[in-house]
C-alpha cells in the first residue's frame, strides 16, 4: 500500500513571460480518490493537469507525482506511469498518429511506450492482448483495425481512455474527455469512467459530466483554488455561483449533478402554474 499521496502540490505557481497562469496551488490527492476539477474558461485547469501529468514543472513551489518530486526525477519515466487522456494538443500530441494512419489498436499500444507514434519492436503478444482487452472493455473491441482518423468523436474518446490505461497507470488524468460527444456517447464514457480503478482527476466544465463515483472536487478560478474537499461539500450552488460568476442552482440526484442558471422569471411562472402565491415560498437559489 502506497503511503505518499498520488499527487501533492505545495504552493505550485506556473509563470510564463509576463503572466502567472496558476498561483500558489496547494492540493493533495490520496490514492483511490476520484477528483473532478471545475472552473470557467481560462481558470487554469489544463495548466494544473500539465503539472500533474509531469509535462511541466512548477516555476515556484513543489509538486510530487506518485511520490516523485518534479525536477528531481526522470520525467519521461514518470510519465509512463501516468494515464493521460486529452483531446487538445497541449498535453498529448495525436498529430503523428494521424499522419501515420495508425489504427485504434496502434493508438492504444502507444500507451505502453508513452509515445505519440507506435514503437512496434516494443509490443509483443502480451501487449496486443492487453490492448484488445482494453478496447473490448470500453465497448470498442470491433474498432481495433479501424484507422483512428476515421473513428467518430465518441469512439476516439473511448480509445483515448484505453490508451491511458495501457501502461497500468498509478493515476489517470482526463482533460475534458467529453468534448464533442453526443448524449449517448457522453453517457457511455461516464459509465466507463465510473469503472476506473486507479486514482483519477477529471477536468470538465460541466457538472452533468461528473461521474457518480467522484469522491472530491477542486474549484479553480483566476489561476487559484476557490474551494476543495469532499465532492458533496464542494459542489454547492453557493460555491459554483462564485466560481462561474453567475447565480446557479445545483441538483444532486442518483449520484449525478446538474446545474442551471437561476432565472427568477421562469421560477415565478412555474410557481404560478403550480398555484403558488408569489413571495409565499422561500427562495432556495443555493
Ligand atoms: N504558454 C502560455 N503562454 C501564455 N498564456 C498561456 C499559456 N498557456 C496557457 N495560457 C493562458 O493561461 C490561462 C489558463 O489556461 P488553461 O488552459 O490552464 O485554462 P483552462 O481552465 O484549462 O481553460 P479552458 O476551460 O478554456 O480550457 C489562459 O488564459 C491561457 O490563455
TrEMBL record:
InterPro entries: AAA+_ATPase, ABC_transporter-like_ATP-bd, ABC_transporter-like_CS, P-loop_NTPase. The keyword ATP-binding applies. The keyword Cytoplasm does not apply. Pfam families: ABC_tran. Keywords: ATP-binding, Nucleotide-binding. Residues 7-247 form the ABC transporter domain. One of its GO terms (molecular function) is ATP hydrolysis activity. This is Iron complex transport system ATP-binding protein. It comes from Sinosporangium album.
